Structures are given as C-alpha cells and as structure tokens.
C-alpha cells in the first residue's frame, strides 16, 4: 500500500507543477483572445486554477508528501504549443485565431481531466477519501471548463463559416436543408435515377419523331 501511496504523491506533484505552469500561461491566453466570452473564460479559469493549486497542496499534506512539484514534461509541451498558437494567430483573422486558441486550451483541459481522473481513482482505491474529494472537486471544474470552451466554439465556428462562404460561394457540403434531389449537378440515386433515365428516353423519342 505504501508504494501505491507514493505513486499517488508523485501523480499529485506532477499535477501541481502542471497547474503552476497553467497559472503562468493563462494571462497570456486571455490577452491573446479576441472574443469577449473567451477572454472572460480564461480569466475565470485562472482564478479556479489558483484554487486548484491550493487543493493539491492540501492533498499532499494529507498524504504526508512534500509540496515540491516535480517537472511535468507533458504540460510543458502543451504550454509551448499554446505559445506557438498565440504567435501564429497574429497572422490570422480574429475568429480563426480564437478557434485555434480554444483548440490549444482544450488539449490542456483534456490532459488535466485525465490526470485528475486517474489520481482520484487511485486515492479511492487506497482509502484516501479526503484526498479523493479534493481531486473530485477539481476534476468537476476542469470538465466544466472544457464544456464551456466547446460552447464558445460553436458560435465562433458558425461566424467563421458564414464569413468564408458568405460571398456567394457554394459550401462544398451543400446548403442547409439541401437534398441530393434539389441539386441537378449531383448524381441521383434510386427511383429518381430511373425517372431521369426515363425522361432522357422520352426526349430522345420526341427528337426522333421530329426528324421523321
């Protein structure tokens, strides 16, 4: 059991370092965001993350582990990708830049959701219920943050599509509500194909009679 407890301590130290990296990165993401709701979401999550750091420190204290966080290489890579996304976004329109920023942020959220889910399960299995409760609270916040980012994405994506195809260009997947039978350029399937073939045959027969 002590080995499992040590494993849990290491997992929490890894998460602690990850959260500290996020605390440093979120202000930059908020500054880079153009959409007001996205900027607000990043600012709100910064306050949440600072609280999550406190929970991890409390959990480590309950386990008798040190609060020193070991370097989280996985989060370091994600944060670096996020920084690249911010830099690349300077050459993009506002909508596209925000959508790319959300993608980078959700990668971070999914990493955290995975980490907290694993740690919570381990804490429960070894009877560390107080620790499990702390981790469960943070896990719920991370899942809510991810859900909020998805909700923000939808209208931004719709605006982006509207701008890109709003100049009269036909969308490659068709207009909303359009069926294959309403587009003469598309191949017609089933019974419609038979009717088209029959119609062509009637036209050919009329032309033959006209020549006669």
Q: Would you mind describing this structure in some detail?
A:
The protein is mainly α and 212 residues long. The chain has a single domain, classed as Up-down Bundle (Ferritin), CATH 1.20.1260.10. Helix content is 78%, strand content 0%. The chain has six helices and no strands. The protein is elongated, with a radius of gyration of 27 Å. It starts with a helix and ends with a helix.
Q: Can I get a quick summary?
A:
With 212 residues, the chain is mainly α. It has six helices and no strands. The chain has a single domain (2-164), classed as Ferritin, core subunit, four-helix bundle (Ferritin), CATH 1.20.1260.10.
SSE layout and pairing:
Elements: H1 2-32, H2 36-63, H3 73-89, H4 94-125, H5 129-165, H6 191-211
Helix pairs in contact: 1-2, 1-3, 1-4, 2-5, 3-4, 4-5
CATH domain class name: Mainly Alpha
How many separate structural domains?
Answer: 1
Q: Using only CA atoms, what is the Rg?
A: 27 Å
Secondary structural class: mainly alpha
Pick out its properties:
mainly alpha; Ferritin; 0% strand
């Amino acid at each position: 059991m002590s080995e499992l407890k040590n494993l849990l301590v290491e997992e929490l130290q890894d998460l602690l370092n990850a959260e500290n990296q996020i605390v440093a990165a979120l202000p930059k993401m908020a500054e880079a965001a153009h959409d007001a709701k996205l900027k607000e979401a990043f600012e709100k999550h910064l306050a949440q993350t600072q609280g999550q750091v406190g929970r991890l420190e409390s959990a480590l204290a309950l386990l008798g582990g040190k609060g020193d966080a070991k370097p989280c290489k996985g989060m370091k890579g994600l944060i670096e990708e996020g920084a690249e996304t911010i830099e690349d976004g300077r050459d993009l329109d506002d909508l596209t830049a925000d959508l790319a920023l959300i993608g980078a942020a959700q990668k971070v959220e999914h990493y955290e959701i995975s980490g907290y889910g694993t740690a919570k399960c381990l804490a429960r299995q070894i009877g560390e219920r107080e620790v499990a409760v702390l981790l469960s609270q943070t896990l719920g916040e991370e899942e809510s943050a991810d859900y909020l980012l998805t909700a923000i994405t939808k209208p931004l994506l719709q605006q982006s599509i509207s701008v890109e195809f709003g100049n009269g260009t036909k969308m490659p997947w068709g207009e909303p509500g359009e069926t294959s039978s309403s587009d003469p350029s598309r191949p017609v399937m089933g019974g419609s194909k038979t009717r088209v073939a029959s119609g062509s045959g009637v036209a050919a027969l009329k032309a033959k009679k006209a020549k006669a």
